[in-house]
Design a protein that fits this description.
The radius of gyration is 26 Å and the shape is elongated. A hairpin with a 6-residue loop joins β8 and β9. It is built from four helices and ten strands, in the order αααβββββββαβββ. It is of the alpha+beta class and 176 residues long. The termini are far apart. Helix content is 19%, strand content 28%. The chain has one domain. Strands 1, 2, 3, 4, 5, 6 and 7 form a seven-stranded antiparallel β-sheet that branches.
Length: 176
């Protein structure tokens, strides 16, 4: 038995028979066509600038979270500095970014202002493990503690009586 490649006519016929019901080859679009159809995602900074302006927040800060996710916390003085969480996802439209309730470990989903939900593939913050798998509603279960005076004011985010992040500087976010 020889180990050689046969380019015989019968091999070509066999290939045609084997793949006769295969879907047709789709022509790849030219790079110019792709550029026209793909819309660039709005940057998180630009989105947060718009939210700060619309909601009249005194400022927002990017929270330290896992796996390159974008979580912001925002505050208004007139609302006693109650924190509001925003989650940025380039595949989700802007109005659906305000998080009303975050469900930790057991359910792993978050609920947005419009009452839509989204599954979390992982807990966004290491400190959520302190809550034992229950729910977290930021506007009622979290608060800011002001640290310092004058121009040196920072905040500590406290949720369910746990200091979860310190050194937060609430400021207007500028897109780059």
């Amino acid at each position: 038995m020889s180990n050689h490649i046969c380019t015989c006519e019968w091999t070509e016929k066999l290939i045609k028979i084997r793949f006769r019901n295969a879907p047709p080859v789709v022509k790849q679009p030219a790079p110019e066509e792709v550029k026209k159809t793909i819309q660039p995602a709005e940057s998180p900074q630009k989105l947060m600038e718009e939210i700060i302006k619309k909601e009249q927040y005194d400022g927002c800060s990017l929270l330290t979270s896992r796996r390159n996710t974008w979580w912001y916390v925002c505050s208004k003085k007139e609302n006693s500095h109650k924190p509001t969480f925003y989650n940025y996802n380039k595949f989700r439209k802007a109005p659906h970014s305000k998080v009303m309730k975050v469900v930790s470990f057991s359910s792993k989903e978050m609920t947005f202002e419009d009452r839509s939900t989204e599954d979390l593939k992982f807990s966004p913050f290491y400190w959520m493990g302190k809550f034992g798998g229950g729910t977290l509603t930021p506007e009622t279960e979290c608060s800011f503690k002001e640290i310092g005076t004058g121009n040196q004011v920072t905040y500590t985010l406290n949720c369910k009586n746990h200091d979860v992040q310190t050194g937060i500087q609430l400021e207007k976010i500028k897109s780059q």
